Each structure stands twice: as structure tokens, then as C-alpha cells.
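Human: Here is a favour to ask of a fellow structure person. Comparing notes only helps if you start from a blank page. I am asking you to supply a protein in sequence and C-alpha cell form. Write it directly below this note and I will take it from there.

Assistant:
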Amino acid sequence: MSQYDETSTSPRPKFPKFHKKTRAPPSPTAEVESVPLPERVTASSSPTPEGQSPVNHSLLASPSRPIRPGDPIPVLKKNRFGTPPDVCGPWEGKVATIGSLNGFLVTSPTREYIPRYPREVEVIQTYEDGFWGEHEYSRHPQLYVEEMTHLACIPATPEQDEMLFDLFHPLHASRDWTEDRDIAVHGLGLIKREMRKSLARFEAISAADASTSRYGSFLIMLLRQAVDRMNYLPSVATRSIAVAAHVQRLALELEGLTTYLQVVLPRIESSEDFSHSVLDVVGGFIREGAVTQTWHRVGIPYWVLQPVSSEVAVWRVVQEDALPFWLSTRP
């Protein structure tokens, strides 16, 4: 039987009771002892006296706050006057702007305008003309990518070759698409015969010029597929326009690749200065210093992104241009 069984007649032992003591909260008026912070030591300050611990400046330093939406935009002023040279220095600005790129300056040493900067997006929008708006690399300057320099060499206008006019033709469903009445499904059709014939001929022209490049052969294969789809697969108007625009896009990219292989690459490999022989090509946006100097020397038009500084030579301050009128902004 247990010593403390209920049937036992012996008295139970009494254990002492422990009372929990609660501490009163500090008075809001109580004084708090302040610890003086060490004084900031500058380069001109006297050295730390012997016997005292040195000041840890990393604890006192505060990083500069990044520019946020709503912050005042730095003021950009021109600091060069008179007529600018035909070609300015690599980082100088015949024109300059800040636009919506807070903290960054966009300059061009050769152009009189600054196109809209193509901001990074997760999904590229296809508009009613079949193009991609500010991300349309065959019509609008894009940010430099090392393996795709030929995109900056795409012709900017058809002036250098009359055969290119059809590649710059703005497509629209009401003008360039017709419904096929001979098929059973209503609302399907093709690009009009004349336009299909004009675009299809670039398949053979591009194949003759760019087939020496492995990537050129790949583009030629894509162009053939796009031309076949444009010719033989009836679609709704918006899809047919998008396919025809892709034919234009690929043909212009092949033109850019040809220009890069036949004109730009020999200039890069040469030691001559071609900065005053600027090519009539799309160009691009640059952030790398070495690429800026190379493009400046070989005559590729560009717009360089650099931190805002009063040291940058600026002849004229302009606003960022809107998209060209022939690029649609309607989905």
C-alpha cells in the first residue's frame, strides 16, 4: 500500500506554497540612461588616443537611399553651346534626356532624337499591325545583347535599297487581308495575293546573302516556314497579319545579319576610324563602356545609358520620343 493511499489514516504532508511575484512595469516618466555615441571621425580628425578603442565607422555609415517613384527627378541642363560637331565623343550627348529612367542619363553622339527605351516585360504584346511596339527589334532600337549585334544593323529605312520598301509596308487587316469565300469556315482568309508575292521573294534574296552564317541558315529556315504558313494556311485577320509581319521581321533581320557580316565586321577587325561614316541602321541602347567605344568607331548609331552627371557634355536636352506613328499601340 502506498504511503499516501486514500485508505491510509496517516495525515498528508503539507508542501509550502510559492507565490509568484510580479514586477511592476517601468514608469513612463522614468529616466533612461543615455549612452553617448562616439563622435564621427573624419580624415582630418586627430588619431585615436592611446588606450581608447577606435570608432567603428561601419556602424555609423548609412547607405544612400535609392531613387524611388515620386522622388524629384535630377535636373538636366545643357553645358555646351553653339553647333555640336557632326559626331560627338563616345559618351557625349548631341542630345540627352533622363526621361523615366531615374538616376540615368541617355545620350547619343550622332542622332538628333532619343527613342523610347524598351522596358523589360514578362510578356511581349502583339499589336493589331502584327508588330511588338517598343519591343519590335526590326523597327525600334533594343538594349544591346552580345550575341545579337546584328539586330542593331537592321536597315532603319528602305532608302538604301528600293527592294526593301515592301518590308517596311505597314500591315492592316482592312487593307492587306481578304476572306477566303471558297472554304467552309466563315471568317478565315489570307493576306492578299500581291502582298504575299512581294514578301515571298525575300526568301530567295535573303538565302543568297546570309547562308554563309550558321545563324543565317537558321533564320532562312524560319523565314521559309513563315512564308509557307502565310501562303497556304487561312487564318483570322489578326493572325494572318501577325504571320505576314513575322515574314517582314525575319527578312529584315537577315538584312541586318548581311550588313553585319559584310560591312560592320570588317570595320571591327580594321584599325581605321569609321565614326564619321554612320550607318543608316536601327542601332541600339548600350550600357557597357567597351561596346560604346567600338560602336562609336565603326559607325553604328547608339544611345548610351550612364549615371546622371554634370561632367557629361550635353548640347541639347530633349524629351524621349514617342513610338513612330506607323507602329500601332492597339492590341
